Amino acid sequence: MLTLALQKSGRLNKQSVQLLKDCGISFINGGNNALKVTATNFPLQILFLRDDDIPECIADGAADCGIVGENVIAEKNVALAVDKKLEFGKCRLSIAVPNALNYTSQNDLQNLSIATSYPVILQAYLAKNNLNTSIHEISGSVEIAPGIGMADAIFDIVSTGSTLLSNGLKEVETIMKSEAVLASNPQLDQKKKEILSKLLFRVNAVMHAANHKYILLNTPNDKIAKISSLLPGRKSPTLMPLAKEGWSSLHSVIKEDDFWQNIEKLKEAGAENILIIPIEKMIA
Ligand code: ATP
Ligand code: ZN
């Protein structure tokens, strides 16, 4: 049995739970108050925790692995193995200063005070750059600190920047980029390692599929070579004759981005009745 920690509620909860479901792992969601559930068709136990507690729980063995933001792992400063970047929960951690402050370089941070709930990451950055800047640790609503005279600047999570804007702040230094990751204790026993690699195999298949589409189109036979060259698939496409003389149905797997880049060219080359179909799982 492998124990996996997920965020109980918050920005990562929904997508973490959905990822497990997409991996074909079923569990009965025991309502808002259940802290521990067991999967019914995979040797997995799930703990629901505050995200801040997840890295240490994995490090001390209460959980074997978990889904958490890289920012939280860095702040807790624990040595975990990052097994897979999950492409959600993306954000950056930046220093922002009041719009009125004339900022030209890092050196403008000298002798300021910065409010943050990420003192460990900030301290490492200040030390690395020999900056004499003081840290004012607060646990929430960091962005209001300069406005109420609590600090000169802030260091916080930014995703769109709209919170900064509405508080009269501008982003001046990006110190870290973060996304949700599946991280584990580097010292798992062999049995647990095997379960984790089965879980990772499924996660890879789900994520791989999410970035690809199945494409079907009709093409005149004399355009097959041209159209195939516009579908940078991994293998050669599948071809089937249509009832209509001189035409074929061509099937392939493409990256969604490649499709949007080549759609005009496909049509110009003579492709018709193009269908793009989602793929549920994909094993490379
Ligand atoms: P908890 O109650 O579990 O302690 P929290 O309030 O600390 O939750 P959330 O706001 O749910 O945390 O954010 C969880 C994680 O989501 C962050 O640590 C970060 O990795 C990621 N994230 C992505 N975008 C944002 C954003 N705009 N603001 C905050 N966190 C974000
Ligand atoms: Zn938290």
Offer a concise description of the structure:
Helices cover 27% and strands 32% of the residues. The chain contains eight helices and 15 strands.
Describe the structure.
This protein has about 280 residues and is of the alpha/beta class. The chain folds into three domains: about 1-90 and about 180-210, 3-Layer(aba) Sandwich (D-Maltodextrin-Binding Protein, domain 2), CATH 3.40.190.10; about 90-180, Periplasmic binding protein-like II (D-Maltodextrin-Binding Protein, domain 2, 3-Layer(aba) Sandwich), CATH 3.40.190; about 210-280, Alpha-Beta Plaits (2-Layer Sandwich). Helices cover about 25% and strands about 30% of the residues. The protein has helices spanning about 15-20, 55-60, 70-75, 120-130, 160-165, 190-210, 225-230, 255-270; strands spanning about 1-5, 35-40, 45-50, 65-70, 80-85, 90-100, 115, 135, 155-160, 170-180, 180-185, 210-220, 240, 245-255, 270-280. It has a six-stranded mixed sheet. The protein has a five-stranded mixed sheet with strand order 8-7-9-6-10. The radius of gyration is 25 Å and the shape is flat. The model has no long low-confidence stretch (mean pLDDT about 95). The site of zinc ion has 3 residues, from loops.
